[in-house]
Structures are given as C-alpha cells and as structure tokens.
Amino acid sequence: MDNDVDNSCIVKHFKSYATLDEKDQQLLLSLEEGPRAWPKNTILWHQNDQSDCFYTLSKGWACSFRELKDGTRQVLDIYVPGDIVGLREFSFQKRITSVIMLNDAELCAFPRHHLDHIFSSSLMLCNIMFMITSRDQAILLERLVNLGRRSAREKLAHFLVEISYRLQRTNARVEDHLSLPLSQSVLGDALGLSAVHVSRTFQEFRREGLLKTGNSHLELLDIRGLEAVAGFDAFYLEPPISDSRS
Amino acid sequence: MDNDVDNSCIVKHFKSYATLDEKDQQLLLSLEEGPRAWPKNTILWHQNDQSDCFYTLSKGWACSFRELKDGTRQVLDIYVPGDIVGLREFSFQKRITSVIMLNDAELCAFPRHHLDHIFSSSLMLCNIMFMITSRDQAILLERLVNLGRRSAREKLAHFLVEISYRLQRTNARVEDHLSLPLSQSVLGDALGLSAVHVSRTFQEFRREGLLKTGNSHLELLDIRGLEAVAGFDAFYLEPPISDSRS
DNA sequence: GACAAGAGATAACCTAGGTTATAGGGGCGT
DNA sequence: ACGCCCCTATAACCTAGGTTATCTCTTGTC
C-alpha cells in the first residue's frame, strides 16, 4: 500500500507538472523515503546544517526563514501541503535557510544524491525539476515586488491570495473561503511588517468582511475582495509549459 | 577565432562552476550564437514576449524589472559581465520580467530548445545548470532579507557589496575600489527606496569616505567599510559544491 | 487545574523614509 | 552652440508604519 505510486508525495507533485510514464513513476517512487511525522514548531533543519536531502510536505504547513544578528527574522517562503521543501539548497553543501513546522506535519525525504539517477535516466523528470525551480523563482520575484513596492494592505492581501492559489493547485477543495494556520507574526516576518501593524491591518480587513482572525489561524472570507485590494495578477503562477520539449 | 572555446561566453561561465571536458565545451560552443551589440537603454525583452532563448552578457550591464500599474517599477536583478540573463524564465512560455541595458552591451544568445541536447548528453552540464539556478535563488533570498528587514543604509551598502563580489567572480581585477554604471533611481527601484532617499544616504556615505557619486555611475572607495555598514556575510555567494556528484 | 508562554487587540507616541519642489550640471542630438 | 532631458542635490514637510506598553484570551504543560 505504502509502495503504491498513487500515495507517493513526490510522484503526485511531479504529475501536477506533466504526465509521467510508468517507468518514471517507478523511478521516483523507488528513490523516495516513506513519510515521517514532524510535530508543530520542530525545526526541519537549521542554516549551516549539512544539506543532503530535500522533502515533500505530504501533510501540514512549514516555512523557511533566516535570522539576523539583531534578532529579527525574515520568513522567506511558506510551504503548503504538496510542496517540495529544500530544492533551493540543491547545490549548497550547507543549508542557507532554516525551516520550521507551522503545523503538525508529515514529510517524505528524498536523498539528494538520488538526483543523479533522475538526471541520467529520464529527460522528462529532469525537465520537470527545472520547471519546479523555475516556478519557485517566479514566486520569489513576485515576493520582491511585494516587499519593495506595495503598501501594508496590498502586501498582506497579495500574500494571502497567492497562498490561496497555491493551495488550489494540489488541494482541490478551495472555493471562496479557506483557513490558514498562520500567525500574525509569521506574516509580519514574511512581509517586512511588524506584528502590530499586521493586527491593525487585519482589523480593517475584518471590518470590510474580507477575513476572520483566529489563534495562529485565519480564515479568508472573500478572496475576490482580497485580490482587488492587492491588484493581484496570477500570471506568475500559471502552470509552466509542460511537455512541449519532451 | 570566434569559434574558439576560450572566447565563448557560456563556456567561460560554466567553467567557473566546474571543470569541463573537451566534449562538453564543444557541445556548449556549438549551441551558442555569436555576440551581438545592444546599445544602452535598449530593451532586451518585455514582459509577455515569447520566451525562446536566454543570453550570456559578454560586455556591459543590464537589469531586469517589472512595472506596476501605478507606474512604479521594481528592479529585480542587476546583471554584470559574464552573467546569464533569462534562465529564470526557462519554463514559462512568456517572459515574466523585462530586461533593459544599463550600458552599451554585448550578448550571446542561447536558444532554449538546445537545452535538450545538454540534458540528454551531459550529466555534468545538467548539474552545472542546476548550480547556476541554485545560486541565483540564493541571491534572490538574500535580496528578500535585504528588502524586508534592513534600513536604507544597510540595504544600499549590502547591495553594493554584493555586486562587487559578483564582479570579482568573472572579472578578476577588483581590489578595494571599483565603479558601477548605476543611477540612483535604478538603485532605489531595486531596493524599494525613493531616489531622493538614495541621494540622501549617498551624501552620508560620501562624508564617510565610502564612495563617490557621478552621473549614472558610482565609485566604491571602501568596500570593507561598506561591508561593515551592511553586516555583510558572503556565505550565500559561496561557490556551490562542484563535481562531487560527477 | 494552575501556570507559563504564546497570540492577539488596542492605544500613544515617534521616526525613517516618502513626497514635492527647486535648482544646477552633464551628455547628447541636431 | 543650443536646447532638452536626465541625473543629482537639497530643503521642507508629511505619513505609513515601527515601537513600547497593557490587557486579554488561548493553549499547551506538569
């Protein structure tokens, strides 16, 4: 059962980019380790740790961050179920970020040296790897725009809408309403805002009926409304070109 | 002469990551087009253009940016001689950024579909491709930290020091003093600052003997001093692991 | 079930950096 | 040689968002 192709985190993820033939699926499957539980707030790795594998997040949420000397923190990315964590650090011997669980989560490890098998035996998988990192970069670029040129209201709205789009990709059941396990300080640290100001801004959003706030947890009530606040354009999340080069 | 491996932009770039055997060098060489001149301020491509190749910047400087509806601009990256431009957009059919020349420049095109040859015939080249995108991502991550959590002084100092490191990589002759073709408004747009505030901050830096300002052009006089202002740590530029997996 | 620790709301106050305006200088096209 | 435009400097003024401080409400722990 556990060896079933349909249960594999990484096979599922790769399939969302292009169709895989049986051989590729088996190859991926054989190289991935089974899922393991990681409770909320545990550190998956620290900056400077040896970097020898990446993970697929089969359940739960996580985020990567960097701590500065002055004690502040910059959250670099948020990972939702189905995401690949750590591909970024691929060619560094040591991790260049830290990753923490936002949630009770479950991860499947994928030893990095197994990538050799992939590169040498499947052009398709190799291409998909590039698609994944490419989409990843596109998200980072948009985050730069967000941090550099938008107001607090826009930053928050944009970030939340982006996450809702990313959730839709692998977790089908999202319409116009969904809830995220994100505290206000995580959001502040992701967007270069203070937690206090996130709270202030959420008060406005609440009054406008855009969302509800809970405890380390918030509920988006009106995603279209948030898109309007952010001036959101999803072009940068568009599914990358698929098998045109296969 | 033009077909000489030692003159090829892309061969030079790839060699800075790992040693290439003769076959790999010839392969790269055969797939790259000769250099072509691009005068200052010309647009290499616009957002939404068809994306069918990337380039190596053999001479001159360029930057990628995105324009927002409100007329502001976010500069996403600055390219120095030797850099690869456009690898980011690899798996998007349309460009997701625009690129403009900061300088009279010279570029070699590399048609994207040629990557198939590379992936299928050389494990080494495939690995180097990943190293390049990986380092690229590391730079973006650090830029996020810069935009999210640092003061204007720190942002500017950090950015300038980073560029001086990147210059050293492919352009050997940089000691403690070098000059960059960057206007204050480009810097502002890259760092989420107003051009006015860049000017104010440069006035301080000038008084402190850190740099000299010119016309669309500035000269770093004391790189160590700037590193101190920024609290700079070059770990994220460290040469990625090389042929450990070859 | 008590307590400590984290998460959020809200208010008062403050400052880094944005905005607008003016003016001078250099490079470039004709 | 003229004129234009872009780049830069600098000053006066203003505001978005940071900081600090309290209080409350959860939640996880022993």
TrEMBL record, chains A, B:
Residue span, HTH crp-type domain: 150-224
GO function term, MF aspect, one: DNA binding
Cellular component, GO annotation: cytosol
Superkingdom as given in the UniProt entry: Bacteria
Entry keywords, A to Z: DNA-binding, Transcription, Transcription regulation
Protein name: Crp/Fnr family transcriptional regulator
UniProt source species: Marinobacter orientalis
Biological classification of the source: Bacteria, Pseudomonadati, Pseudomonadota, Gammaproteobacteria, Pseudomonadales
